[in-house]
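Tokens as discussed.
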């Protein structure tokens, strides 16, 4: 793609952003929405539109090579990304559910589920590529020194004498030679039998013309069948019923060519960024050398002129503005000298006025309280009417998005780039920014010189007042210093002791690797976690049936709660803080794969805190404190970091067998305490996985894990997609003999882990070599799957009932009950009104009769 294509992408995203910002920044505050469904429709529509904008901005930021454009794009991208996460939390608080379904919104906007798939920004890893390579190299070096873990050593070590090894080799070699000899003798016997039959029967004689006709007949039939089969395959490919054949050389695929072009553009980004950084230094030096002296002289002349004007107006030299107020910037405003001096005095005496304002506020509150007591009834009605309905919470990211869109509108939307085909930096924009920067630096230097000059002038003119003013100034300064010391002392008390103050982060990192706490995770992309979109979610919710989420929903939820906030510090500091997440589901549903995908997409460190992994490591209370100190210190220094606990429900069980050597409850207290220390600037996430969450006590379990991600067994659409991907991944081929649809239907209840096991057992090296002669069939996968236990309905129901008992599930049940009660109350009120009308009519008739009598 060209530069103009990605510039057009950015332009389209900005135009869509302008439309949605008109609703985000209304002229008048919107009225509260009383209908919960209407509120959710509004949020879902905004959420979908923001995702579309996010997809365009992410693609543009990844491929645009102009360094100054990339800075504006990054600011806008982070704002939109944070807004998506904010809207997700808004929908979660409104519907009391982690999973949301908006099929109707997609159909109204004429979009497919692929159009709203959340992309993971590539800059999470690309901008830290060098650091990640160095860290991976260090990790490999340390692991090579340490050697394989104890479990692997036990598997590798096989005690066998030299004579036994020779004996085994001899047995196998003799058996091989015997098999070959037997095969050779069998072929000789078969050949002899064929020769005997030929001699007894005699050679058949045929007329040459008849023989030629038979050969022609067979050949024409074969060629016609081959041609017909080819035409049929082309027709099926044309109508989309079968996939086109892959080229022999994968490098010639359009996808591989596009990936190569994208990589070249990323290299161009690095080159242009390096040139831009050099230009910043050179242009600043030129401005300082050429325009700096003139700026300094003009500033000094203006300040001296101000001294004279103030003395003529007030009879004395003025006080020079302090650095906190802005220094000489205050002088250059167009004001009278007397007014400017008054303003400076007011700002210096602001502390006294702030105290008076506080008193006035208290008096006003007391007056309001008295008024409130008089007219309580009226105010209560007003408050109730204000509180009714749903209002959108104020956003922390909309101002950033507004700022970025204004920058685009004022600079890049109207800027001509006809002479900048290579898309290098714009020196004129650099000059504008650096001129302000140089001016500010010179102003600080000039301010210091002019303060000294003003002090000399005052000393010469007002020698008597010098001592009093100097003492008063010293006293004030001393008081301020005392206050600062006190604040520092208070902050110092809150800080915890550093148990490893004499050690470097590299040393601690190495220790954790040696102990097996920091582990190397396999390279897995989030897109490898296959799953189809759930198309019946909205329909089931409208029928008051809670649908089971699909694997696509799980992938989206992990991206929104884990990857997007941890990937960007700008998003993590403003978005609602997620400290921990629980991933629950049957065995084989891909819980660990999701964690590995998160680490790969973020370039994060993986700390394995599973009870099995900590057996015999850091014993006792002091050892446990040291362990948590190490993981949090290294995790904060090398963030983003993910703390992983497998089988986390064992930590919260009521009773644990005494024979269990892992002692899973050991971490419980320290873990809950340490979670409270995680702040907004700490990109750390605790993730626990469990396949039997119903064994744990609910209250302490949910107090530890803030978000719950439930992974169900895959539905038919997801199974169909997973079978196709797995068969291709392990070297299989599709043909008319392989019925994927029937295979997906038969394997209901089996997890992706079961499917991987079956494919690995069927598609061996020998079977792959036979595919050209013997096509793959669905029946071959049935036997391996029959040996595995699927996820039965009883287990799925137990997961559903447990999920309904979580805090979010209880809130959802209460909200559903409240909606039913409201609907029932409206029906009763409607019936009561009708009844009253009838009875009122009868009474009216009786009254009329009495009057007539």
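Sequence:
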């Amino acid at each position: 793609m060209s530069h103009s294509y990605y510039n057009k992408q950015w332009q389209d995203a900005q135009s869509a952003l302008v439309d949605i910002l008109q609703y985000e920044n209304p002229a008048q505050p919107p009225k509260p929405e009383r209908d919960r469904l209407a509120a959710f429709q509004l949020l879902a529509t905004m959420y979908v539109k923001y995702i579309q904008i996010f997809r365009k901005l992410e693609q543009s930021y990844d491929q645009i090579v102009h360094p100054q454009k990339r800075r504006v794009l990054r600011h806008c991208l982070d704002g939109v990304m944070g807004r998506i996460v904010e809207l997700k939390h808004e929908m979660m608080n409104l519907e009391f559910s982690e999973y949301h379904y908006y099929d109707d919104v997609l159909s109204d906007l004429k979009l497919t589920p692929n159009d709203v798939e959340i992309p993971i920004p590539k800059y999470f890893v690309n901008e830290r590529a060098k650091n990640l390579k160095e860290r991976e190299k260090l990790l490999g070096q340390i692991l090579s020194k340490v050697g394989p873990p104890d479990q692997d050593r036990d598997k590798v070590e096989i005690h066998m004498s030299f004579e036994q090894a020779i004996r085994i080799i001899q047995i196998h070699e003799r058996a091989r030679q015997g098999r070959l000899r037997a095969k050779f003798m069998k072929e000789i016997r078969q050949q002899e039998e064929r020769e005997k039959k030929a001699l007894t029967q005699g050679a058949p004689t045929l007329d040459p013309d008849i023989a030629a006709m038979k050969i022609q007949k067979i050949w024409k039939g074969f060629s016609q069948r081959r041609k017909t089969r080819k035409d049929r395959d082309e027709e099926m490919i044309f109508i989309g019923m079968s996939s086109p054949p892959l080229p022999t050389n994968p490098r010639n695929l359009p996808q591989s060519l596009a990936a190569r072009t994208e990589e070249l553009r990323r290299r161009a980004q690095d080159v242009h960024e390096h040139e831009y950084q050099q230009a910043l230094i050179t242009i600043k030096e030129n401005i300082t050398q050429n325009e700096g002296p003139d700026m300094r002289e003009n500033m000094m002349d203006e300040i001296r002129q101000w001294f004279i004007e103030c003395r003529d107006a007030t009879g004395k030299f003025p006080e020079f503005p302090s650095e906190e107020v802005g220094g000489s910037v205050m002088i250059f405003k167009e004001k009278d000298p007397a007014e400017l001096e008054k303003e400076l005095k007011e700002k210096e005496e602001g502390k006294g006025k702030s105290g008076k304002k506080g008193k006035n506020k208290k008096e006003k509150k007391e007056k309001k309280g008295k008024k409130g007591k008089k007219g309580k009834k009226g105010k209560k009605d007003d408050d109730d009417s204000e509180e009714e309905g749903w209002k959108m919470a104020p956003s922390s990211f909309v101002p950033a998005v507004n700022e970025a869109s204004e920058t685009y509108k004022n600079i890049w939307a109207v800027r001509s780039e006809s002479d900048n085909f290579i898309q290098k930096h714009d020196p004129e924009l650099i000059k504008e920014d650096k001129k302000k920067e140089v001016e500010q630096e010179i102003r600080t230097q000039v301010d210091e010189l002019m303060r000294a000059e003003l002090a000399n002038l005052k000393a010469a003119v007002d020698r008597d007042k010098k001592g009093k003013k100097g003492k008063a100034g010293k006293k004030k300064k001393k008081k301020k210093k005392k206050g600062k010391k006190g604040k520092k002392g208070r902050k110092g008390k809150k800080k915890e002791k550093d148990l490893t103050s004499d050690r470097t982060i590299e040393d601690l990192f190495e220790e954790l690797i040696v102990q097996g706490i920091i582990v190397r995770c396999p390279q897995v992309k989030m897109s490898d976690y296959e799953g189809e979109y759930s198309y019946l979610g909205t329909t089931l919710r409208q029928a008051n049936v809670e649908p089971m989420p699909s694997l696509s929903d799980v992938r989206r939820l992990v991206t929104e709660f884990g990857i997007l906030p941890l990937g960007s510090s700008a998003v993590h500091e403003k978005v609602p803080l997620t400290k921990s997440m629980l991933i629950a589901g049957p065995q084989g549903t891909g819980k660990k794969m999701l964690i590995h995908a998160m680490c790969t997409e973020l370039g994060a460190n993986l700390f394995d805190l599973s009870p099995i992994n900590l057996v015999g490591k850091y014993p006792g209370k002091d050892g446990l404190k040291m362990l948590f100190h190490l993981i949090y210190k290294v995790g904060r220094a090398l963030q983003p970091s993910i703390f992983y606990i497998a089988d986390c429900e064992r930590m919260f069980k009521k009773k644990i067998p005494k024979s269990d050597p892992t002692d899973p409850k050991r971490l419980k207290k320290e873990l809950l305490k340490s979670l409270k220390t995680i702040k907004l600037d700490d990109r750390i996430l605790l993730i626990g996985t469990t396949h039997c969450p119903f064994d744990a006590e609910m209250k302490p379990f949910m107090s530890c894990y803030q978000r719950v991600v439930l992974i169900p067994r895959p539905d038919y659409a997801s199974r169909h997609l997973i079978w196709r991907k797995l068969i291709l991944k392990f070297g299989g081929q599709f043909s008319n003999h392989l019925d994927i649809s029937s295979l997906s239907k038969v394997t209901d209840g089996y997890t992706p882990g079961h499917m991987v096991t079956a494919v690995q057992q069927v598609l061996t090296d020998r079977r792959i070599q036979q595919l050209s002669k013997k096509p793959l069939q669905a029946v071959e996968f049935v036997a391996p799957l029959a040996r595995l236990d699927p996820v039965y309905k009883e287990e799925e129901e137990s997961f559903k009932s447990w999920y309904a008992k979580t805090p979010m599930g209880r809130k959802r049940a209460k909200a559903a009950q409240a909606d039913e009660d409201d609907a029932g109350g409206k029906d009763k009120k409607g019936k009561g009104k009708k009844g009253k009308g009838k009875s009122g009519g009868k009474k009216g008739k009786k009254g009329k009769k009495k009057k007539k009598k």
